[in-house]
Each structure stands twice: as C-alpha cells, then as structure tokens.
From TrEMBL:
<dbReference type="InterPro" id="IPR006140">
    <property type="entry name" value="D-isomer_DH_NAD-bd"/>
</dbReference>
<protein>
    <submittedName>
        <fullName>Glyoxylate/hydroxypyruvate reductase A</fullName>
    </submittedName>
</protein>
<keyword id="KW-0560">Oxidoreductase</keyword>
<dbReference type="InterPro" id="IPR029753">
    <property type="entry name" value="D-isomer_DH_CS"/>
</dbReference>
<dbReference type="InterPro" id="IPR036291">
    <property type="entry name" value="NAD(P)-bd_dom_sf"/>
</dbReference>
<feature type="domain" description="D-isomer specific 2-hydroxyacid dehydrogenase NAD-binding">
    <location>
        <begin position="104"/>
        <end position="275"/>
    </location>
</feature>
<dbReference type="Pfam" id="PF02826">
    <property type="entry name" value="2-Hacid_dh_C"/>
</dbReference>
<keyword id="KW-0520">NAD</keyword>
Length: 310
C-alpha cells in the first residue's frame, strides 16, 4: 500500500502544490479526492474548507494539514478522527496579510476615501495630513498574523494597541488581554483591525453593543472571519455613518450575495477573502517536514488546539 496524501481546495492549484511537494515526499502518492485508489492508504490530508463528510472514508488518517491559518472549518467536525491538525505558519503569509492591513490603515489615516470621492466630483479638497502617532489603531488578535501586522503599523509610527487572550509584550504595542478590557479597548480605537480566529468565544464578539462603543467616525477593518462580527449591526452602523468606513475581506456568507446592502455602500471597500493566502513556494517545505516528522515518530509543528479552537 502506497501512503497517500489527499488534497482538497477550491481555491488553490493542486498541480502547483503537487509539483512542489512530490520531490520533498518521495514514496508518498499525492492526489485529489477523485483519484484516491484506496481510501485506506490515505494517511495525510492537505485541505482547505473540505465539505462535511469529506474525511469519513479516510479511516487511517494520521495528520490533517490545514491549507491556511484559520482552522474554524476543521475543528469540532464529526467526520474527523482525533488526529493532529496543523496550520500554515509562514512568514510570507504574515507579510502578505500585513501589507493588506497596512494598505487599509494608511488609506484611512491619509484620508484617501475623501480624496477618491472629491476626485469623482472634480473637487480640490484639501485635508491637512495627520501625523501617524496621533492615529490610534487597535488590533484585535495578536497571533502570528496579528503580531506581524501590529509590528508593521508600529514601524509606520501609528499609536498601536493590541488585544489577545493571554498577556503579551510586543515592542511599541500597548498590549491588553481578556474580556474585561475589551470595551475600553474598542472605545479607544479610531481604526479597529479584526485579526481574531473564529472560535466559540469569538463568534459574534463584535455585536451591536460593542460596535456602538467605537468612536464616532471610526474605521473598521475585518480580515479574520465574518462571523466574529454582527454583520447586520455593522451594516447599520456604516449606513448611519456612525462607523465612517470599512474594509471587509471576510463575511458571514461567502461569496457575499449580490443583494447584500454592503455592496452598494460607498464607504465600504470589499475584497473577496484574499488578504493573505497560502503560498506554495514557501509553505510546501513545512508541510513536507511535518509529514516526515510524523513518519519518524516526532511531534508535528504548528499544531492547533481543537479545544481552544485555534
Ligand atoms: P493565531 O496565531 O491563532 O492567533 C490568534 C490570536 O487571537 C492570538 O493572539 C489569540 O490570543 C487571540 N485570541 C483568540 N481567541 C481569543 C479570545 N477569545 N479573546 C482574545 N483573544 C483571542 O491566528 P493568526 O495566524 O494570527 O490568524 C488570525 C486569523 O486570521 C485566522 O484564524 C483566520 O481566521 C484569519 N485569516 C484570514 C485570512 C484572510 O485572507 N482574510 C488569511 C489568514 C488568516 P493568544 O495569543 O493569547 O492565544
Ligand atoms: C485564510 O482565511 C486563512 O485562514 O488562511
């Protein structure tokens, strides 16, 4: 029986991943679901958002490698045996995410939406630039991606605060932890960047009450998961102008349905869930290394804690 790695993703190129992984994993067959010859031979899965029931026939699965950072589509599933789940932990993914966050924050800090609007009206609209240190940016979630983005914002000179579950020390970032200080954290953020994983604790965390704590005229950036935020409450706050602007990469339902009012809002920038993506050139090596570690009987790296949800 040839050990098999089954691949599943609707967003990533199987051929590209296979070409990079095959030389690193000699002796392992890499294929997609429809090409699995013997489900019993499938020991490893490399998957992004596989449908419910996907794993049911792979009874010998030993390792599930999430083809991304967030594992909310994997933890707590009933078609999955109790095996290690790993995530991608790739500095290039962190850099890609940080560039998105930096773009969105700079766009607001430099009043670019106002100039975009003025240009459409052929209007010379002078707004004196603010110094970055006077702009208070709050980053919710200081994990691999959040900490990277926070460091880039610090490098740009912004007044950066960060919030996480456990206490942290990050250079240049005022760090807060725990629910007790969340309300005051939100109330102090002129630009709020959501970089939390979706877990049972964070689902709906930014509800109507908490969104109402944002300072009037604040800006909101979500690159985590749509369900962390009450999307209807966010839409209402944006409609009333209480939240002035939003950059949204993630939504309750993806693709965002054509009839969703967010599409028509001039103060909302929508991107289709691509703030950061899995990068085969840099992540293939860590995926292969983890499989080889498992084969040698060593603990795998970048394992998530299903009980914690991330
Ligand atoms: P991570 O390394 O798992 O870090 C998660 C951070 O959130 C940690 O700082 C953690 O606190 C904090 N956190 C978790 N639960 C919390 C809670 N209940 N209260 C307060 N803080 C909590 O995650 P990451 O790699 O930075 O990625 C974050 C998320 O970004 C992913 O889970 C995914 O959903 C999303 N993402 C989106 C895209 C995109 O393209 N839009 C791409 C990649 C990832 P501790 O540090 O104390 O544990
Ligand atoms: C993308 O959303 C990821 O979690 O990697």
């Amino acid at each position: 029986m040839i050990p098999t790695l089954v691949f599943y993703s609707q967003f990533d190129s199987f051929e590209q991943w296979q070409a990079l992984l095959a030389p690193l994993l000699p002796g392992i067959r890499i294929c997609q679901e429809q090409d699995v010859e013997d489900p019993e031979s499938v020991l490893y899965a490399l998957a992004w958002k596989p449908p419910q029931g996907f794993f049911a026939r792979y009874r010998n699965l030993q390792l599930l490698i999430n083809l991304g950072a967030g594992v909310d589509s994997l933890v707590g599933r009933d078609d999955l045996p109790a095996i290690p789940i790993t995530r991608l932990s790739d500095p290039n993914m962190g850099r890609m995410m940080a560039s998105y966050v930096l773009f969105a924050v700079l766009r607001y800090a430099r009043d670019i939406p106002a100039f975009e609007q003025a240009q459409r009206q052929r209007r010379w609209h002078y707004l004196h630039p603010r110094l970055p240190q006077s702009v208070r940016v709050g980053v919710l979630g200081l994990g691999e991606l959040g900490a990277y983005a926070a460091a880039e914002l610090v490098r740009q000179g912004f007044a950066v605060s960060g919030w996480s579950r456990s206490a942290k020390q990050l250079e240049g970032v005022r760090c807060y932890s725990g629910l007790d200080c969340l309300d005051s954290f939100i109330a102090d953020s002129e630009i709020l960047v959501v970089m939390l994983p979706l877990t049972s604790e964070t689902r709906g965390l930014l509800d109507a009450r908490r969104l109402a704590l944002l300072p009037p005229g604040s800006c909101f950036i979500n690159v985590s998961r749509g369900a962390v935020v009450d999307q209807q409450a966010l839409t209402e706050a944006l409609g009333s102008g209480r939240i002035a602007e939003a950059t949204l990469d993630v939504f309750d339902r993806e693709p965002l349905p054509p009839e969703d009012p967010l599409w028509g809002m001039t103060n909302v920038l929508i991107t289709p869930h691509l703030a950061s993506v899995a990068i085969p050139e840099s992540a293939a090596r860590q995926i292969a290394d983890n499989i080889l570690r498992l084969q040698r009987g060593e603990a795998v790296l970048h394992q998530v804690d299903p009980a914690r949800g991330y």
